[in-house]
Amino acid sequence: MSDIYWFSADSRGRVIAKTEIKPNGQVIRYPFTIPDDINSGHGHQIYNTLEDFIRNHPDEANWERKANHPDSINRKWKGPG
User: Fold this and answer.
1) Please, are residues 10 and 35 in contact by the beta-carbon 8 Å criterion?
2) Which of 1, 8, 9, 21 is the most buried (most CB within 10 A)?
3) pTM of the predicted structure, to 2 decimals
4) What is the 3-state secondary structure (H, E, C) of 41-61?
5) Is residue 61 part of a domain?
6) Over the chain, what is the mean pLDDT?
């Protein structure tokens, strides 16, 4: 099974995050540092299961690097999207 992913937008239609479901059931979310600008960088949130994501998003990721963290700003994008 390949990854399942989708992009989320804010009320203005600007893309604000990419979310992936991995074959092992883990959910990974990449919040954009600046809406609609993936080149500005992205954060990284990990949820162990889809149930964790549904129950706890956006407050309690199992692991997180914020979108405005120094390691996130201008972070290069890898993969589709």
Assistant:
1) yes
2) 21
3) 0.74
4) EECEEEECCHHHHHHHCCCCC
5) yes
6) 85
Q: CA dihedral defined by 52, 57, 59, 63, rounded to 10 degrees? A: 60
Q: Is the dihedral of CA 34, 5, 54, 70 positive or negative?
A: negative
Residue 74 belongs to some domain of the structure? no
Rounded-to-integer distance, Cα 41 and Cα 63, Å: 18
The tens digit of pLDDT for each residue in 24-38 reads 999 999 999 999 998
In-domain check, residue 16:
yes
Q: Which residues pair with 15 in a beta bridge?
A: 9
Count: domains in the chain: 1
Q: How many other β-carbons are positioned within 10 Å of the β-carbon of residue 61?
A: 20
Q: Is there a domain that residue 78 lies in? A: no
The two tokens of residue 41 are 């960088």
